[in-house]
Write a structure and sequence with these properties.
By secondary structure, the protein is an alpha+beta fold. It has four helices and seven strands; from the N terminus they run βααβββαβαββ. The chain has helices at 13-26, 38-50, 99-113, 128-136; strands at 3-7, 55-60, 65-73, 83-90, 118-124, 140-151, 154-164. The structure holds coenzyme A. GO terms for molecular function: acyltransferase activity, transferring groups other than amino-acyl groups.
């Protein structure tokens, strides 16, 4: 497949919006039942860019968005600043071809280059494809939280996974 992974630009946002809203409508990957509009995704990209966080998109030769991945603040208190939480989405007709792992590999490299220490994934416990994908990338399961969410009339369980980006790194003094 002729595919590139690059930083998202505003021109990618309509494609990102379609993928995001498909996940809202049809999956428990995101625990949100309200569709968003383009302005919402514009604000999200602007906020990620302003904070220096990457938003990566996989595009085909025609420039269509096939998937995207990004990370942001995990918890806003200062002491958590070396940890980020990410998300990864592949367009429904493009799954099972290895795009998710490629996006994640690129995102992990960006996090390592940024000097971050830990990457956290918060995954719906029934999402076996995502849990396997993260295990293959070296993430370990570090938490199981039963019934902390709900969607489509069901309680949802959360599996927390984490990856050490710079094993052995000393914590900063200040
Ligand atoms: C989870 C996700 C990112 C994986 O991306 P991907 O590009 O499909 O990853 P892979 O190609 O490595 O496939 C992962 C697994 O999904 C299977 N799969 C999922 N959907 C598939 C489809 N439509 N067709 C074929 N295989 C599919 C693959 O066979 C593979 O199975 P395996 O783990 O037994 O090998 C993607 O399925 C997705 O976007 N899902 C919806 C959003 C989501 O769950 N995001 C993660 C939130 S934490």
């Amino acid at each position: 497949m002729n595919m590139t992974i690059q930083d998202a630009t505003p021109a990618d946002l309509p494609g990102i919006l379609v993928i995001y809203n498909d996940a809202v409508l049809n999956t428990t990957a995101i625990w949100n039942e309200t569709l968003v509009n383009l302005a919402n995704r514009q604000a999200w990209l602007a906020e990620r860019n302003a904070a220096g966080f990457p938003v990566l998109v996989a595009r085909n030769a025609a420039g269509e968005v096939l998937g995207y991945a990004s990370y942001g603040t995990w918890r806003s208190i200062e002491g958590f600043r070396h940890t980020v939480e990410h998300s990864v989405y592949v367009r429904s007709d493009q799954r099972g071809q290895g795009l998710g792992p490629l996006l994640m590999q690129a995102l992990i490299e960006r996090a390592q280059a940024a000097g971050l220490h830990m990457m956290v994934a918060a995954i719906e416990s029934g999402n076996a494809a995502s849990i396997r994908l993260h295990e293959r990338l070296g993430f370990i399961i570090s938490g199981q939280m039963p019934q902390v969410g709900c969607k489509f009339g069901h309680w949802l369980d959360l599996t927390l996974m984490q990856l050490t980006l710079n094993p052995g790194a000393e914590p900063p003094i200040a």
